[in-house]
Fold:
Amino acid sequence: MPHLAVKDVRAKYGSLEVLKGISFSIEKGEIAALVGPSGSGKSTVLRALMGLTPITGGAVDIAGETMNYSSAKEVRAARDRMAVVFQQYNLFQNMTVMQNLTLAPLKIKKWNKSEVMSEARRLLGLVGLSDKADAFSDQLSGGQQQRVALARALALKPQILLLDEVTSALDPELVNEVLDAIRKLANEGMTMVIVSHEMAFVREVADKVVFMDAGQIIEAGTPTELFDTPRTDRARDFFSKILRH
Amino acid sequence: MERILEQMPRFFSGPNLILLLESAGLTLAMTVAGCLIGFGLAFVLVFLRQTPGLWALPLRFVCILYVEVFRRIPFIVVIYLVLFFIQTVTPNASLFTIAVIAICLYAVAYTADIIRGGLESVPLAQIEAAQAMNLSRLQTNLRIVLPQAWPVIIPPAIAFAVSFIKDTALVSQVGVFELTFRGKELNNQGYSGILVFGTIALCYFLMSFPLSMLGQYLEKRLATPRGQRRSRKIWFT
Structure:
């Protein structure tokens, strides 16, 4: 049984159907990359998985448990298993880096305090920000904030990590520091679903690429299959434009 | 003018001063009690108003109706309504209690919108980040939204309380011995109106000015690091 299976998930914003039946699955330790033009629904897939956008149909298997987000309890269960990093970091502005990392593990998961603190320090070391534990987010650069957001998500010990265009809001110079941190996670065997426009990075780390357009999956496969020998015209057109740069 | 100078020693004699001090204390007590309780209840009202879900629709409607109705009634009418209503229910309720309740009802309506504005100034993304971590609505409000909303809520809330110290003069209409009531009394006793109400004006100023200062102090203290940077002096060239 796959670690994450998205099965015919549908979502609407008002009368506009933004997800028209999305299905894909990944095994434990695999990385799936959602790619496609803006407005194709990539981010909405992640929002739906986190219960931030209600789904109108379909179901999701997460680590062996099927859920369809129909009750508050199921939404909580899904959020308990996954963590998300947003494009705009969304660090809590009123808290220090350390407080950002430890809030949910202490108050929601109710884990042991000394373990939570030492794990938070380990994660800050992992993303190379050990010296910033007491800084507030607006004292950090965008790349630093995004790495803190990554550490904050990891502090929840998620079974699946969702990354929503985590480098899109960053200066080109800062992109690599964040990508390096994600590479480390990939090597550690973290299961991830990433939405990204960094095609070279996707080719490097992803096990599966899902190409979406207008709320549908047009084509899915390995990076080599999609980038080098796309079967559909739409995918060929998209990748020929985007890979030329 | 001569009359004022001549009356001064007698006016500022012991009994009169005590009377003024007492009534000033009463004015301050009414305002502080009414506004603090009202401010607290306003939070509850805003929280109820933001209850999601279809079943809470009547609840939201009542909350909105309350704010809209009380903001459109003159304060003096609220006072009379409370007076007659309370006196029907419990005939021996003190006028002070009635005044505090009236102030409270009014303060809830006004500060609720101030609080709502403050809470809504916090970006939705902050709330979603908290939701994604399974923080409950109450936890999100207390730990994430409110701490960031304080700097937006405090200045207008204090400004409301400051202006309300003055508006409490209206409760003299129902016979609460607050500052303005005593002023009228002293004036009737033959003291010069200029002297009496000049002194009363000074009392109101002395009560509200420290509150304004407190507001400014809190505004600075509660500001986030970013807010502090923003509030530094900007030099125009």
Remarks:
- The domain at 4-90+159-242 of chain A is CATH 3.40.50.300 (Rossmann fold).
- The longest strand of chain A covers residues 16-26.
- The interface with chain B takes residues 50-52, 76, 79-80, 83-84, 86, 88, 90-94, 103-104, 107-108, 136, 138-139, 156 of chain A (CB under 8 Å).
- The mean pLDDT of chain A is 92.
